[in-house]
Amino acid sequence: MLKTYQLEASVFDKQDTKPKHVKSLTLSDIKRLPKFEMDATMQCAGNRRKEMSQVKEVKGLSWNCGSISTAKWTGARLTDILKAMGFKDEDFNKKYIQFEGLDVDPTGTPYGSSIAMEKALDPNQCIMVAYEMNGEPVPADHGFPLRLIIPGVVGARNVKWLKKIVLSDEESHSHWQRKDYKCFNPSVDFNTCDFDTAYAVQETPVQSVISEPSASSSISADDGYVTVRGYAFSGGGRGIARVDLSLDGGETWLNAELDNNGQSPYKSWRGHSGGHSTHP
């Protein structure tokens, strides 16, 4: 597969019947571009869906709080790849950039996603195409040979097994961009809602999770104290400034101690993990 693999990119106008300015790079070509490394936390849009269903049943895998992880990604910046392909300035006037993977659904339609072009071109967003994860080739389950990494954005937009990039004035027509991963108020019926009236979910919201002790578990305080641990994460590169903990239903609050991950609070792609607080 690697001998024939190529990452393809093109420009598509609605009035055209097929893409134009089709370009491609091999995996070796991409590895010759300036190497970019980044630690980034990725979270599924459905993380903690199990808790959501305790309020009102929602569709999808019943994730608890573990559908999130941090890895070191190595690859090339998306902007460097587009420049190496020789696209012209006017090509970047398109509204969106679409991404397509090698995986297909039962109808034969490839998985896809898209983000705004202005986000894709912003150097502060650190968007990259990765060929290594934690110092090794990206594992098959995580998107070998190339995976798109858009830090601070829901996992659904970080396309695995990346095969194609399209510059377009339209969002991806993928089911997962148009007919899923959108938010509605609790009174809306998922089976009859009009997905075209809502925006596709992109950046993840701020949240914090108590992972220890686990929910409904029995605990003891042999020395008179209990240590509470968990994680806090916010999408869009926004760092976590503070985590507050209440032991009395919100009447009073205490500050948790955060592990400093050494990143700027305005450009933080890695979640704070191991934050803890010890209380009598």
Automatic annotation (TrEMBL):
The keyword Ligase does not apply. The lineage of its organism: Eukaryota, Metazoa, Spiralia, Lophotrochozoa, Bryozoa. Keywords: Metal-binding, Molybdenum, Oxidoreductase. This is SUOX. One of its GO terms (cellular component) is mitochondrion. Coiled coil: none annotated. Pfam families: Mo-co_dimer, Oxidored_molyb. Residues 199-266 form the Moybdenum cofactor oxidoreductase dimerisation domain. It comes from the Eukaryota. One of its GO terms (molecular function) is molybdenum ion binding. GO terms for biological process: sulfur compound metabolic process. Its cofactor is Mo-molybdopterin. Residues 21-176 form the Oxidoreductase molybdopterin-binding domain.
